[in-house]
């Protein structure tokens, strides 16, 4: 059955005003001034997916750095100790609150497609999608954004030279560390792919095997590349020796990067998406992330209901219906704002949400339309998020990724740089889902120099009494995790409770609600099924790292997702 979900064309024509920080063509306007309190916490909180990275952040704070220097230290150290999730060959998105200016900023260090990108490279000779080209080896890799993004962050917002903020990563890569069970598991899982490329095997399979439990593992080539970045900034990666090695390695393995692709790469500042909900101001990721638009659309829909007065089943019902509608728009409209016109004024408008609310039935699921789709893949935990608040009240959330586990599994010889497989985040083959089951439209088709759409949603929630930095990995589930985290935080939950809260997820297609064990009690599940929902149990997902700030007693709190080992939330 096909429901007329919404008459978007008509609404588009009617939308003359909106609350968005964006023009209809996606060009950022200035973000409205923040309402973050002027009081300073006097101490700092960091939560990341690895204790070595959290400690690297505190080391740099102790040297006189601010939250943004600490973020450079955490991100670069994660590149060394959690390479399965993010790193020097990947990209990130960052939401910042600059306390002294009471200003919010978004940094887009997302990868771009090389100019020579050719959609036919992602098809088999019989026209079926070539998933190996999309996910493994150099054709799957976009031009990395992480080095340029960290250089921008340090130079524009940090206090310390890169030689100080990158020092913990360089030291850890050179002296070595004991990989945690997640990294060892990822190397074992991807051993066959790593063996396909000699430099990947040399880095991850010393003596031809994954490192043994408890063995010290070193990455001197990555240390050297970070050193070049510390000395020369962008030029240490995007020009000269490193750039030449990257391009040579990619070509030797059948890829199509050019020196010009690297030289042209720029990290960009964009105006964040800002949405008000129940007295809180949520500052989140704009395109080329779909996350902030979807979160804003969902919150705008939910604004029309009193969730607190509902039973569990109805609360979940309205949240799921809002998720369904936001993900539909995600698939239809969103892409790189530098390449596509997006109706953001419409998508972010409260009037548009009013329209969407009209066809949500009180006791019945709305079936998603029957578009061709494939099963969503296990969202995995390969991407990372960390949150920082410093003693001056600067806040930063960074979600950073090489995309799927160990990215492309391709290491460029002589650099220690593991390349991402972010090209799969484009709609590479029309009407075919990516690894997260997401479908895309022309707006997210691959094109030279274009950024692929992301779900990464680092978010800052600012209230009169409490504020928080929230984010998580998890592919398409990032959006719903962050949304649920925001709702739990606004309901009064602590950092630990927000990170631990059980999760559910709906992404329009496939038309199922993914449920973590224990998220709904038996009666709620029965009621939801009666409303027409298909509930599908899934292994726990996400790796949320949260820092909260209570303005009433000026206390910080930091929590790392209890679902995973190695994470550390710490306040000092
Ligand atoms: O940018 C994105 O949306 C994806 N590349 C993120 C991948 C991810 O979160 C993987 N794992 N959990």
Features:
six-stranded antiparallel beta sheet, 34% helix, alpha+beta, single chain, globular, binds 6-diazenyl-5-OXO-L-norleucine, disordered N terminus, 21 helices
What does this molecule look like?
The longest helix has 22 residues, at 312-333. The protein has helices at residues 8-14, 51-62, 67-81, 131-135, 146-157, 162-165, 167-175, 181-189, 191-194, 198-204, 220-232, 235-238, 240-252, 259-264, 291-302, 312-333, 344-347, 350-358, 477-490, 495-500, 522-530, and strands at residues 45-48, 91-98, 103-109, 268-270, 273-277, 280-284, 384-389, 395-401, 411-412, 417-418, 459-462, 466-470, 504-505, 513-515, 535-537, 545-550, 555-560, 568-571. The protein is an alpha+beta fold. The protein has a domain at 45-269 and 381-444. The protein contains 21 helices and 18 strands. It binds 6-diazenyl-5-OXO-L-norleucine. The site of 6-diazenyl-5-OXO-L-norleucine has 16 residues, from loops.
